[in-house]
């Protein structure tokens, strides 16, 4: 080859390299325009400790070191099972139904575990979280409705969590600090904990581990002080019992398990570890480890819920005060029943409640960032998203704290309305999750099989029906007057129509049924 030809060839190679570099930069810019749960630099690298190379399609052998590195997201997810709303459900269940609903608490936790494992499965297998996937799966109007419903559920949960923390602060200050001051303290503490994320995901997970440990130790101390009847405790767990007078509490136990924002949250949290969705062996490995740590996390949450339920069952079941106990006055009743001691049970309850409220408030803020970023594809700095998400909850919470702080009864009524608000949103998290996890085009080989799919839809249907019963019971007792009745009927019609639309897009219904639906119900896409 002549010298000019070599020079021309060299120039062509340089042009090709420059073109490839520009294409890579363009691809990087394009991908950066998409909102992601975690940036590449924030993810934890899970290295292979025992061997250097492994086939991408082969699942590496079990490693305790790897399990430790994967441990974290499940425990953050489990905090939603321990928020103040759940604790109130526990204490009311124990006071009114005694030990008889402990079996239901156990199986409700198992159902919750199944739903959360499916959420993790979607996140790991696709490399994207549920809110992002909903943005691509549904048309513009439907995803806006889903986003609005998710935000409503999050605000409702956040109000309960912040109020729970504020009640704990009021208890620990012996009533010196009013409820609204506790709300402000809780809001500021939340930013402090989120600040820890700047030092790495593991630091934030460690802070949550401390809060869960505080809850566990506080409620275990109460459990030891109460000395519940062991035989009745075992009977309550192993023997299913349900009486006509405890149906409402039973519905509450199941309803508290599934938190809509938690379904979105877990699919994002699992992306804090570097897992290549294109490597099947690594994806399956991650799913195995996440299954183990999520099961362990929810076992801990079950024990904590069990402690709270049994303490109130031992102290108040069959008493006149049973129906009057709520989150606001629980500490007072505990003090009257169990007395002071070396460390008064009132303060033990306050410390555990504060840890529950604070931890669940932070995870709520975390979930709000993923929900807003995923549905709306907002590219905002984390502190800005946290500020917006916090404002959505804190502003109405301060109003609630001032308006409803007149009596214990008014806060109990508020809590009932907030439980109803969250129950209404459950289908709008579960149906999209089950739709996506069953899609072969999206999940590939990791789509759920036909048996697991039927089990998951059965569990989801059971949860939706149970919460539907709670809604019906609530509206029959609370909605009075023709105007309110008409408004409730109109809203119910629209609500059911949207659920039918989501189910029609899921592929679970026979095609002949879907074809009979109105035109708009069978259309998909953006």
| Series of secondary-structure elements, N-terminal to C-terminal | HHHHHHHHHHHHHHHHHHHHHH
What separation lies between the terminal Cα atoms?
55 Å
Global shape: globular
- Output mean pLDDT: 81
Q: How does the helix and strand content classify structurally? A: mainly alpha
How would you describe this protein?
By secondary structure, the chain is mainly alpha-helical. The protein is built from 22 helices and no strands. The protein has helices at 3-32, 64-70, 73-78, 84-97, 102-126, 130-137, 140-172, 179-195, 201-226, 230-238, 247-255, 260-269, 280-316, 330-338, 345-376, 382-403, 408-425, 427-437, 440-443, 450-478, 482-504, 511-516. The relative contact order is 0.16. Its main location: membrane. GO terms for molecular function: cadmium ion transmembrane transporter activity; manganese ion transmembrane transporter activity. One of its GO terms (biological process) is iron ion transmembrane transport. Residues 1-24 have a biased composition (Basic and acidic residues).
Features:
transmembrane helix, 526 residues, single chain, transmembrane, mainly alpha, 22 helices
């Amino acid at each position: 080859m002549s010298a000019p030809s070599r020079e021309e060839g060299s120039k062509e190679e340089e042009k090709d390299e420059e073109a490839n570099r520009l294409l890579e930069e363009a691809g990087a810019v394009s991908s950066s325009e998409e909102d992601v749960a975690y940036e590449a630099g924030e993810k934890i690298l899970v290295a292979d400790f025992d061997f250097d190379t492994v086939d991408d399609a082969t699942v590496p052998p079990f490693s305790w070191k790897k399990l430790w590195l994967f441990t974290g997201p499940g425990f953050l997810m489990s905090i939603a099972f321990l928020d103040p709303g759940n604790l109130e459900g526990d204490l009311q269940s124990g006071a009114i139904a005694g030990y008889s609903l402990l079996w239901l608490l156990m199986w409700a936790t198992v159902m919750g575990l199944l739903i959360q494992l499916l959420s993790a499965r979607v996140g790991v297998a696709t490399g994207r979280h549920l809110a992002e996937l909903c943005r691509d799966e549904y048309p513009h109007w439907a995803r806006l409705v889903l986003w609005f419903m998710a935000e409503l559920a999050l605000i409702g949960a956040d109000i309960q969590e912040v109020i729970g923390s504020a009640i704990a602060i009021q208890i620990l200050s012996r009533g010196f600090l009013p409820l609204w001051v506790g709300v402000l303290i809780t809001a500021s503490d939340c930013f402090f904990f989120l600040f820890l994320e700047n030092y790495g995901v593991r630091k934030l997970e460690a802070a949550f581990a401390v809060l869960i440990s505080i809850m566990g130790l506080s409620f275990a101390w109460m459990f030891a002080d109460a000395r519940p009847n062991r035989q009745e405790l075992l009977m309550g767990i192993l023997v299913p019992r349900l009486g006509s007078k405890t149906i409402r509490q039973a519905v509450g136990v199941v309803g508290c398990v599934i938190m809509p924002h938690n379904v979105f949250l877990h699919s994002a949290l699992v992306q804090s570890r570097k897992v290549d969705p294109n490597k099947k062996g690594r994806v399956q490995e991650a799913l195995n480890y996440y299954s183990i740590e999520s099961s362990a996390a929810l076992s801990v949450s079950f024990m904590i819920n069990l402690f709270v339920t049994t303490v109130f069952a031992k102290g108040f079941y069959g008493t006149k005060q049973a129906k009057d106990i709520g989150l606001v006055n629980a500490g007072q009743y505990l003090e009257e029943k169990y007395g002071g001691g070396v460390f008064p049970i009132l303060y033990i309850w306050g410390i555990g409640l504060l840890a529950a409220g604070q931890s669940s408030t932070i995870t709520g803020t975390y979930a709000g960032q993923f929900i807003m970023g995923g549905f709306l594809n907002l590219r905002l700095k984390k502190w800005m998203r946290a500020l917006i998400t916090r404002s959505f909850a804190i502003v109405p919470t301060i109003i609630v704290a001032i308006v409803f702080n007149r009596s214990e009864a008014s806060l109990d009524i508020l809590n009932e309305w907030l439980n109803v608000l969250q129950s209404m949103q459950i289908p709008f998290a579960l149906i999209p999750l089950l739709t996506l996890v069953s899609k072969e085009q999206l999940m590939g080989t990791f789509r759920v099989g036909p048996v697991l799919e039927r089990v998951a839809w059965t569990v989801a249907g059971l949860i939706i029906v149970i919460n539907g019963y709670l809604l019906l019971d609530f509206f029959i007792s609370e909605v009075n007057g023709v105007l309110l009745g008409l408004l409730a009927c109109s809203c119910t019609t629209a609500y059911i129509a949207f659920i039918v639309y989501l189910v029609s897009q899921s592929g679970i219904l026979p095609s002949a049924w879907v074809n009979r639906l109105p035109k708009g119900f069978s259309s998909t896409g953006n």
